[in-house]
Amino acid sequence: MASYLVGFRIFLLAALASTSLGVAVPHPMITAAPSLVERAPSKVQGRDIVSDIGGLGSYLSSVVGTYPSYIASGIPNFFQGFPTGTAVQSSLGLSDSDLAATPTQVLNIPGYANWTENGWNLRFHGNVFKQPNISESKLDDLANAFLVGTSIQQLPPTEQTQARNLTSEIYVVQQPYVNVTFNIEPATINSDGNGAPTTHGGGSQKVALQGETTIEGDYDQFLQLANVSGPAGYLLPGNGTTNIQRLNVYANGTDTGNSTAYLVPTTGLTIVSDIDDILRVTKIYEPAEGLLNSFAKPFVPWMNMPDIYANWSRSIPDFHFHYLTTTPEQITRNYMDFIFKTYPGGSFDTRPLNFSDVSATLSIRKFLLEKIFQTYPERKFILIADTSNSDVMKDYPAMVSEFPGQVQCIFLRNTSATDSRDKFPYDTSGFKGIEQNKYMFFLVPDDLTNLDILNGQCYNTSIPQNITFSEQGLPFGLSKNGVASRAELGWNLISAACLVVLLTIIL
Ligand SMILES: *[C@@H]1O[C@H](CO)[C@@H](O)[C@H](O)[C@H]1NC(C)=O
Ligand SMILES: *[C@@H]1O[C@H](CO)[C@@H](O)[C@H](O)[C@H]1NC(C)=O
Ligand SMILES: *[C@@H]1O[C@H](CO)[C@@H](O)[C@H](O)[C@H]1NC(C)=O
Ligand SMILES: *[C@@H]1O[C@H](CO)[C@@H](O)[C@H](O)[C@H]1NC(C)=O
Ligand SMILES: *[C@@H]1O[C@H](CO)[C@@H](O)[C@H](O)[C@H]1NC(C)=O
Ligand SMILES: *[C@@H]1O[C@H](CO)[C@@H](O)[C@H](O)[C@H]1NC(C)=O
Ligand SMILES: *[C@@H]1O[C@H](CO)[C@@H](O)[C@H](O)[C@H]1NC(C)=O
Ligand SMILES: *[C@@H]1O[C@H](CO)[C@@H](O)[C@H](O)[C@H]1NC(C)=O
Ligand SMILES: *[C@@H]1O[C@H](CO)[C@@H](O)[C@H](O)[C@H]1NC(C)=O
Ligand SMILES: *[C@@H]1O[C@H](CO)[C@@H](O)[C@H](O)[C@H]1NC(C)=O
Ligand SMILES: *[C@@H]1O[C@H](CO)[C@@H](O)[C@H](O)[C@H]1NC(C)=O
Ligand SMILES: *[C@@H]1O[C@H](CO)[C@@H](O)[C@H](O)[C@H]1NC(C)=O
Fold it and tell me: What are the coiled-coil residue ranges (predicted)?
């Protein structure tokens, strides 16, 4: 409780700091939520071993390989397998005409653009969906399917509101095979903190997506922008400026699809930042608490990370912030709301719906990292996350060899150092051969001060590094193949033990 209050105080201070320090206020608030199709929502605990056997194939391979895949991406299994599409419609008993009368919304995720020989090339990505009007009692039933060991009736009123909010974002009906167009407008930004807004260059234009949304209602494509002039003249070419220019991007036909696009110069520094357990307190490694933190409680920043980011935004010229979380697309809007109130504005990535199945879950972070690295072959990158994501532990160091010269720093919060209840093992073997000055395992945000990341000085010699270049942090001194360590994840111990027995028999 005490640390919760401290966290909240820091949050207030940070919020004040970020307004007075002039962290750019994102122009139109990004909107739009999730989508949806039906698979029964899964529970964290109390899993029925017998009925789970059907799905054991992928679970089995992931357990034998390394960790359960639902944790691999830093996403616990209560955030997997959300219902989608027609399954939502039928589970809510919605008629086609009810649905037709429901307005279409667009999740328009802030994109990034690169400079090409044909001009600015902007990534549009997001989802088209309808959000049915669900009665409160029905919402409560649906929310209770996600909650474990508690029910919505037992939560305080503000948490009830939040849980209903998330549930309604999960129960949306995605709109496949629709055409989407965007209206692009020059952006006006209060970026200097002196109350003098500046309007960026570029004029109005319409851009139509090529083809229709996918079967999941998603879209993700780069499109070339025309060079048109507006009140502040033309956009500058990306090889003729170091400034990040912005544009407002509105989905046509709805006011739910407003976002900001970031036109990022050919050279410069980009930070790719994870969110859970680095920018906010999630405690993914403690499923019961992680569930409530994600589903019912307001998002709380992790310690004074907002100060660190505000300082970087101020002191590193033209620093491009890109937030890359593998949280499901359905709840992206809540993540964006939190980030843009607490951290500097920037482009965003979440897990697209076609990466929902267990096998694709493992590859999503790599896919998104490669996409941004390929878009900016001459930029350098700072990568930041925490040790509780096994995909991060693999994918971040892999970028060093895959994109030579492009990784400037890797920062990993050692979650078990500040949270002794995190018994989640992590694998440091990927760091073998990478020079120490390029990366740091750190304990608290202040460890990130007094670095010169612009010049590649990313290691603070006063922070002890205890790296074995192998699996670390295993509980009870168990070896890598000790499947019983999974029980430590806060799961129902008995179920886990049964599973171990089952696995032993099957193997
Ligand atoms: C900038 O980019 C344009 C378009 O790609 C190219 O024609 C021009 O030569 C480049 N200018 C410089 C200085 O590299
Ligand atoms: C949603 O349904 C409730 C009744 O079930 C109704 O009172 C409310 O006006 C509806 N809201 C919208 C936006 O249609
Ligand atoms: C849920 O909360 C978010 C963030 O506060 C808000 O933007 C969104 O409109 C809410 N969604 C619903 C369905 O109430
Ligand atoms: C989308 O646009 C294409 C080309 O203009 C058109 O052929 C197609 O019918 C449109 N699809 C829908 C669902 O309106
Ligand atoms: C998901 O869709 C994107 C395009 O929207 C595509 O590039 C990607 O390969 C797809 N991934 C999977 C796992 O299907
Ligand atoms: C657009 O065209 C104008 C006028 O030719 C030129 O000054 C400007 O650099 C161009 N900007 C971009 C982004 O191509
Ligand atoms: C934009 O939306 C309006 C209103 O919904 C619609 O009439 C118009 O046809 C749309 N324009 C395009 C290019 O899709
Ligand atoms: C989106 O932008 C339009 C045009 O500026 C504005 O009218 C609308 O209120 C915005 N919607 C949201 C949800 O902020
Ligand atoms: C711009 O980004 C696209 C999409 O990632 C990439 O294919 C292309 O090579 C990039 N262009 C340049 C000049 O970097
Ligand atoms: C992380 O912190 C734990 C607990 O203090 C420590 O045992 C471990 O060696 C640290 N890991 C690294 C990579 O420094
Ligand atoms: C702010 O950032 C600069 C540049 O990275 C760094 O030198 C300085 O130590 C930082 N200060 C704090 C208080 O974080
Ligand atoms: C260093 O890591 C090893 C292996 O994970 C662990 O046994 C040891 O306690 C750690 N030492 C410190 C000082 O944290």
Answer: none
Does the residue 20 lie in any domain?
Answer: no
Closest CA to 390 of 292, 455, 311, 472: 472
Those residues whose C-beta lies under 8 Å from the C-beta of residue 306, and which sit 6 or more positions away, are 10, 11, 14, 15, 17, 18, 342, 343
Highest averaged pLDDT of the listed ranges 19-33, 130-144, 224-238, 276-290: 224-238
Select from 305, 446, 451, 455 the residue to mutate for testing ligand 11; criterion: most ligand atoms less than 8 Å from CB: 451
The residue to mutate among 415, 466, 479, 485, having the most atoms of ligand 12 within 8 angstroms of its beta carbon, is 466
Decide whether any atom of ligand 10 lies within 6 Å of the 414 Cβ.
Answer: yes
**CATH number reported for the structural domain that contains residue 462 in this entry:** 3.40.50.1000
Residue 504 forms part of a structural domain: no
On whether both 200 and 284 belong to a single domain, the answer is no
Strand 320-328, strand 173-174: pairing = unpaired
State whether 97 and 198 are in the same domain. Answer: yes
In this structure, are 128 and 141 located in the same domain? no
Q: Looking at the CA of 130, name the nearest ligand.
A: 3
pLDDT at site 435: 96
Q: What's the 463 CA to ligand 6 centre distance in angstroms?
A: 48
Model pLDDT, residue 363 = 87
Same-domain status, 312 and 214: no
Antiparallel, parallel or unpaired: β 439-442 and 407-413: parallel
Residue 358 to residue 69: CA distance in whole angstroms: 7
The pLDDT tens digits for 338-380 are 999 999 999 999 999 988 766 677 789 999 999 999 999 999 9
Structure tokens at 151: 């029910």
Nearest CA to ligand 3 atom 12: 165
Q: What's at 274, amino acid-wise? A: D
pLDDT value at 152 more than 90: yes
Asked if 220 and 334 sit in the same domain, the reply is: no
Same-domain status, 327 and 310: yes
For the chain, how many structural domains are there in total? 3
- Residue 29 Cα to ligand 8 midpoint, Å, equals 8
Q: Are residues 272 and 305 in the same domain?
A: yes
Give yes or no for residue 223 CB within 6 A of ligand 4.
no
**Same domain? 415 vs 279:** yes
* Tokens describing residue 307: 């100060």
Structural domain of residue 147, as residue ranges? 136-170
